[in-house]
Write a structure and sequence with these properties.
By secondary structure, this protein is an all-beta fold. It folds into three domains: about 200 residues, Galactose-binding domain-like (Jelly Rolls), CATH 2.60.120.260; about 60 residues, no CATH class; about 80 residues, Immunoglobulin-like (Sandwich), CATH 2.60.40. The chain contains one helix and 28 strands. Strands 1, 2, 3, 5, 9 and 13 form a six-stranded antiparallel beta sheet that branches. Strands 16, 17, 19, 20 and 21 form a five-stranded antiparallel beta sheet that branches. Strand 16 and strand 17 form a beta hairpin. The longest helix has 5 residues. The protein is elongated, with a radius of gyration of 31 Å. It starts with a strand and ends with a strand.
Length: about 375
């Protein structure tokens, strides 16, 4: 029976950070077919993983602390190891070198015939062997397969055995044949498979399990703060928003940093990033008045540069002489500067917002042209 081996350890660093080390893998004994004589000549030990937060992916090679197999085999040079992730990406941990007869673990010395029958070839004793780019390592498995000097191998009787990995003392890790960065972008949930190929005859062995140890830092998003500017709700969280109406629940498709309510009600947002969810934001009671608002495109509003340092230009176009008001607000919606309050002529207008005296952060402009309001974000990096 194939089993999912799942080990989770949690370390809570602060109220906002959750560091997780999570291992998953395959925990069953399987006979490794002996070379081309035993079709299909390849063992795929697969497992379904579904214990990570939704949409979690491997972001960097450092997310993979180790990839380990518990195995015995009487000719290590016969073997190749390849790990496949759910979207089909893979990494070669060890290629078939066809040379080097050092043992892996303690294989059974009385293998019988037929060679492809597991009942006549009982298992020996498996040892752990781990590939890693984090822990100290010196050699690939192929290099240790041919070692005769006792560097990474031990002579027991007349046979050399490749030293097993000690995950307590962090010794005898193996160097992967290819970089583990080949797995960057792999989804963590789904079917993972360890493919072991024995493409040379006369020797066999067993796998008793394999596992991948991962390390991730999940940040629990801070509680968002929402503000009402004009008739639009804004969240201070740039990503992961889901807007809610207190009476009806989640609003379908309302996942942007801002939301324009279509009816009177109580509104809030919750932020979710990498499976971690914030507390609910403050609640704002919104009264739908039906006053016309518009997007910035109608007036060809351009803010350059944005983000900005010290100052930025806000340009807009008037199709006719208009009464114009342009105010700058902080993240709470408080007016901090009124830059325009006058009737302006038809054509392009350009206003400079000077922010030398203001701290870095998110600000908003509110442009009112006659009875039409446009609101936009300004990001100051002083």
């Amino acid at each position: 029976m194939k089993k999912l081996l799942l080990l989770i350890s949690f370390v809570f660093c602060t109220m906002c950070i959750n560091a997780q080390s999570l291992s998953f893998g395959f925990d069953s004994t399987m006979f490794i077919p002996d070379g081309p004589n035993c079709l299909p000549g390849v063992l795929n030990a697969s497992v379904i993983v579904n214990n990570f937060p939704a949409n979690s992916t491997i972001l960097s090679a450092t997310n993979i602390m180790s990839i380990c197999v518990n195995i015995e085999h009487s000719y290590s040079g016969d073997l190749g190891f390849k790990l496949f992730c759910p979207n089909g990406q893979s990494v070669v941990l060890d290629g078939n070198s066809h040379s080097g007869g050092n043992y892996l673990g303690i294989p059974n010395g009385n293998d019988g015939t037929p060679a492809c029958d597991s009942y006549t070839n009982p298992p020996g004793i498996g040892w752990n062997y781990c590939w890693s780019e984090i822990s100290p390592y010196n050699f690939t498995l192929n290099q240790l397969s041919v070692d005769t000097a006792g560097v990474g191998t031990t002579l027991i009787g007349t046979k050399r055995r490749i030293d097993s990995t000690n995950q307590i003392t962090h010794t005898n890790y193996l160097k992967p044949e290819n970089y583990l960065s080949a797995l960057v972008g792999c989804p963590l949930n789904g079917i993972w498979s360890m493919q072991i190929t024995d493409d040379y005859a006369m020797d066999n062995g067993y796998i008793f399990g394999w596992n991948v140890k991962t390390s991730f830092l999940y940040v629990i998003p801070p509680t968002p703060v929402i503000t009402l500017i004009g008739d639009t709700l804004f969240s201070d969280a740039p990503l992961g928003n889901q807007w809610y109406n207190l009476a009806t629940g989640a609003i379908a498709g309302a996942t942007a940093v801002k939301y324009l309510p279509l009816q009177t009600g109580d509104y809030f947002t919750i932020v979710s990033i990498n499976g971690q969810t914030s507390d609910s934001s403050n609640i704002i009671h919104y009264i739908h008045t039906g006053i016309e608002t518009t997007t910035a495109n109608r007036f060809h509003v351009k803010v350059t540069p944005n983000p900005f340092t010290a100052s930025t230009n806000i340009k807009y176009y008037l199709s006719e002489p208009s009464q114009v008001s342009l105010i700058i607000m902080d993240i709470t919606g408080k007016e901090i500067q009124k830059t325009v309050s006058e009737k302006q002529a038809k054509g392009e207008q350009s206003i400079t917002f000077t922010a030398n005296s203001y701290p870095s952060g998110l600000y908003f402009y509110k442009l009112t042209i006659n009875d039409t309001i446009t609101v936009g974000k300004l990001l100051l990096n002083n």
